[in-house]
Design a protein that fits this description.
Length: 679
């Protein structure tokens, strides 16, 4: 991993800020529209983060608020303190920006001005690093590398979560800030001990005396030099203890303030980012905002959700903006799945070196402001659940498994317009209706009881289930040139003209089950051309097993079909998965359409009405984003007893007809985005 990989997956995951232990979460599935006095609930948030630089400490607060108000922002994240304070303080070692004019309090003045205009202000704190003078006075507060030296980046010294800077000084500084300022929320950046710095340098594991003492007490050994499972657990415990201290302080001093970021099960607003980085693996993931908001909104219904659209390309190029349509798509994706509209900018709006994000964000925010009654308290009632993997975020939420495999399944469901809910845990089992669970990673033991009671599961990949589906005879590695034969053309009706599908990577050979819907063909000769197919032999061994357990069914494809689909998008893999999903849905789909596969749809409930969101993603092409091509003249069928439909973007009522259990809508045209109100 190098410097740019730092924002590849972890920055897109919840927990970019304060780190909490995931703990044992148990919750009832409840509508986010439940009555609450918390200001962030049931409110359409249009969020902006402005990462102020030290030199910005001298800006005019009125002009600053003028600029964010002109962008139709109603909630702003503003730098308060930590590495740099933007207000006067007498606390020892709290560094005030040298650019802050004498007698000025930039943060306090922005807060007052914003509140006067009805704009909420969330304070941003970064206690991850401190200045040289602090290190010289208290080296025991800081991260200690294996060679005994500190971790330094651009003149700042990395602190340790178990040192006095975090455990004492940060609490003192934060306490002063909370006493002085009636903030609407707090966000904490980079709280845990990092593995790498911004330049991508491997820092190793902190070897300071504080860590050594705590680790010996817990495990009886010195801190390891590598990240073992025990060390990961140790860091989670450290994060939990620190978090509880910070949360207690916040609740005591500002009980009406929101906590943003951290482990989703404990925070008020789940926070994450959709971002780009020059070393991200290809293909680019155009569904990043939909992915993040979908899984967080459904996994943690007690919290609100925000996924910021990061406008810059990468850390080393913060002044270089990503394409405008990429920014726009991320905002539409976020609000379409029940999250806040959210953007991030560097510095002040008036001093931007690239105004792309402002120019594309302003009309979107203006439209969302005019229609804000539709963009809060949205709940995804999908009855298909997709288990999501942990993607490196500090929260650790999610299951083991391949991100590629998960993304292949996510994309297939999106392209097939099958409404689904991402889930990072199984604590919701039994608390909300579910027809089908799909996992591209582990098959936890808890799913056995779900199946026994009548649930259906599709599992793909080579992680053996925690309960027996079929005995594994042999694991085959790196099957260069293998296939599966598609035998059951009744099950796989859409693949009438295809007889085989390619198989690459690992394959679990299962004992004979008498099932032959898909069967295994090991590698045969593929070169020279004269020898192609020599040695071809269909073993008859199952490449998929379908098993009844109690009143339910599990289908297991013991190879990485969804990962292959992510990489190659083959018709055979798409057809196998699509037909299997349709077979495993007992009541069929809740939404049917002949829309283009690049029109992403989400069906959300908001109190007594529903919203059908449609995002035109046809402008995405490989590594490029262009203006989407208008999509016109398609039909959408939605299961339900709706009697009226109104397209809000095009401002027109739509005729509603019925076809059995479904209402039928004829969609005349979708430009970039459309929302249809169903009542």
């Amino acid at each position: 991993m190098n410097r740019r990989n730092l924002i590849k997956t972890g920055i897109a995951a919840a927990g970019a800020g304060l780190a909490f232990s995931a703990g044992g979460l148990r919750m009832a599935f409840a509508s986010a529209a439940s009555p609450s006095s918390d200001w962030w609930r049931g409110r359409a948030i249009r969020w902006l983060q402005t990462n102020l630089r030290e030199t910005d400490a001298a800006i005019d607060p009125v002009i600053f608020v003028d600029e964010i108000e002109a962008l139709h922002v109603n909630t702003a994240l503003v730098n308060a303190g930590g590495i740099t304070a933007y207000y006067p303080t007498d606390i020892e070692f709290a560094h005030v920006s040298e650019y802050l004019p004498e007698g000025r309090d930039l943060f306090g003045e922005i807060l007052t001005e914003a509140h006067a205009r009805g704009i909420r202000v969330v304070s941003r704190w970064d206690f991850s690093k401190a200045r040289r003078e602090v290190y010289q006075a208290h080296p025991e507060w800081f991260f200690k590398m294996a060679d005994g030296g500190p971790a330094i980046h651009n003149g700042l010294y990395q602190v340790c979560i178990n040192g006095g800077w975090i455990q004492e000084k940060a609490v003192e500084i934060l306490g002063e800030g909370l006493d002085r300022y009636d903030v609407d929320g707090c966000f904490f950046n980079n709280f845990l001990n990092p593995s790498r710095d911004y330049a991508g340098r491997d820092l190793g594991i902190c070897q300071c005396e504080n860590c050594q003492t705590l680790y010996r007490k817990e495990y009886g050994t010195p801190v390891p030099m590598e990240r073992t499972p025990e060390y990961q657990g140790f860091m989670q415990d450290c994060g939990r203890r620190t978090s509880e201290k910070i949360i207690s302080l916040l609740r005591k001093k500002r009980p009406s303030a929101a906590l943003i970021g951290g482990t989703p099960s404990l925070t008020d607003i789940v926070y994450g980012e959709s971002s780009t980085a020059v070393d991200n693996p290809l293909p680019l993931w155009p569904y990043m905002a939909s992915d993040n908001v979908n899984k967080w909104r459904n996994s943690y219904p007690q919290a609100e959700v925000m996924c910021q659209s990061m406008q810059f390309l990468d850390f080393p190029w913060r002044f270089s903006s990503v394409p405008r349509q990429e920014i726009a798509s991320r905002i539409w994706q976020s609000v379409s799945h029940g999250g806040f509209a959210a953007m991030s900018l560097n510095g002040t709006i008036g001093d931007l070196k690239n105004r792309s994000a402002v120019e594309v964000g302003e009309p979107i925010y203006a439209w969302l402001k005019d229609h804000e009654e539709h963009y809060h308290s949205q709940v995804n009632e999908a009855r298909v659940m997709l288990l999501t993997p942990s993607q490196g975020g500090q929260s650790g939420a999610g299951f083991a498994g391949s991100t590629e495999s998960y993304r292949g399944m996510f994309r297939l469901l999106s392209e097939q317009h099958i409404p689904f809910a991402g889930m990072t845990h199984l604590d919701w089992l039994g608390t909300r209706p579910c027809d089908l669970i799909i996992t591209t990673g582990p098959v936890p033991l808890a799913l056995q009881d779900f199946i026994r009671k009548g649930g259906n599961v599709i599992a793909t990949g080579t992680m053996e289930p925690e309960f027996e589906i079929a005995p594994v005879v042999q694991r085959h590695d790196d099957l260069d040139g293998a296939y599966v034969t598609i035998r059951d053309k009744d099950l796989f009706a859409s693949l009438e003209d295809l007889d085989v599908a390619m198989l690459d990577g690992e394959f679990l050979e299962l004992s004979a089950t008498g099932q032959d819907a898909l069967t295994f063909v090991p590698p045969a000769f593929y070169a020279p051309p004269e020898f192609v197919g020599a040695g071809w032999e269909d073993t008859g061994k199952p490449a998929m097993v379908i098993k009844r357990i109690g009143r339910g069914t599990i289908a297991w494809i013991p190879w990485d079909i969804s990962g292959l689909y992510h990489r190659y998008s083959l018709e055979s893999h798409r057809g196998i998965l699509r037909d299997l999903i349709d077979r495993m849905l007992p009541g069929g789909r809740d939404l049917r359409t002949n829309a283009h596969s690049m029109v992403q749809m989400s069906l959300m409930r908001q109190n007594n009405r529903h919203h059908l969101h449609m995002i035109n993603m046809s402008g995405h092409s490989g590594t490029a984003y262009h203006e989407p091509l208008p999509v016109a003249g398609f039909e959408v069928e939605v299961k339900g007893n709706f009697s009226s439909a109104r397209a809000l973007r095009s401002n027109q009522s739509m005729p509603v007809s019925r076809r059995g259990e479904f209402i039928v809508l004829n969609i005349p045209r979708v430009e970039d985005y459309e929302i249809i109100e169903l009542t």
